[in-house]
Design a protein that fits this description.
The chain is an alpha+beta fold. It is built from 7 helices and 7 strands, in the order H-H-E-H-H-E-E-H-E-H-H-E-E-E. GO terms for molecular function: acyltransferase activity, transferring groups other than amino-acyl groups; DNA binding; DNA-binding transcription factor activity.
Length: 216
């Protein structure tokens, strides 16, 4: 059974974007997590980036150590966790790739990662994309507010302050789209989590101004 690694981006046609090999890998991962105890155990391990002993897992889940060891072996077989000896204890550590690989698998199965052709020919010709500047903040926050008004873009109910957004967004990953010199939308990346296993993982935000949506 395959270990947890990020498969290459789908290269097949969007109508059949999930390759058979990837489907087999993902099925193995999901089958491993078909046992609720295994899911709880993986959660405990992921919550302890420095590692947790089999004994501590047994206490946390209120099950016997032989049962924990059995489930740990199953999780290790597919690459969700690694197992190491520390003196007389067995220490279980989450595989950092699991933190990104497992969500990636769910997104791929649900079609979220279905990619467009490499060279789409239907993009609007009047849009310019450039890095966000300090002069864009008023437009950026206005468009943020228009996104809130849709009630589908975010759980946030008020537009965050400039200072809050500036602290949240990665400095080199802020972009705006312009049409005839007017900011029509923006895109940013923010760190997903401060936990070590999420290092290098970011979540994106994309907002399009009211009246500019639906153009591709």
């Amino acid at each position: 059974m395959s270990s947890v690694e990020m498969p290459a981006a789908p290269t097949t046609h969007p109508k059949d974007a999930l390759a058979t090999e990837d489907a087999v890998t993902y099925a193995g991962w999901f089958a491993c997590l078909a046992d609720p105890t295994r899911v709880r155990l993986l959660h405990q391990v992921a919550s302890r980036p420095a590692g947790i002993t089999v004994g501590e897992l047994a206490d946390a889940l209120d099950i016997g150590q032989p049962t924990v060891s059995h489930h740990v072996r199953k999780l290790a077989d597919v690459g969700f966790v690694t197992v190491n000896k520390s003196r007389t204890s067995t220490v279980v550590t989450v595989n950092p790739s699991c933190c990104t690989g497992l969500p990636h698998a769910a997104d791929a199965v649900m079609g979220v990662l279905t990619s467009r052709p490499c060279c789409p020919d239907d993009l609007p010709g009047d849009i310019t994309v450039r890095p966000m500047t300090d002069e864009d903040w008023n437009d950026v926050r206005r468009i943020y507010g228009e996104g809130i008004a849709t009630r589908t873009a975010t759980f946030t109910t008020e537009v965050p302050t400039r200072e809050s957004l500036d602290a949240q967004w990665l400095p080199d990953h802020r972009w705006v789209a312009e049409i005839d010199g007017t900011v029509a939308g923006w895109a940013t990346l923010s760190p997903t989590s401060g936990r070590d296993c999420y290092r290098g993982v970011a979540e994106n935000s994309i907002y399009v101004a009211d009246g500019m949506r639906g153009r591709g």
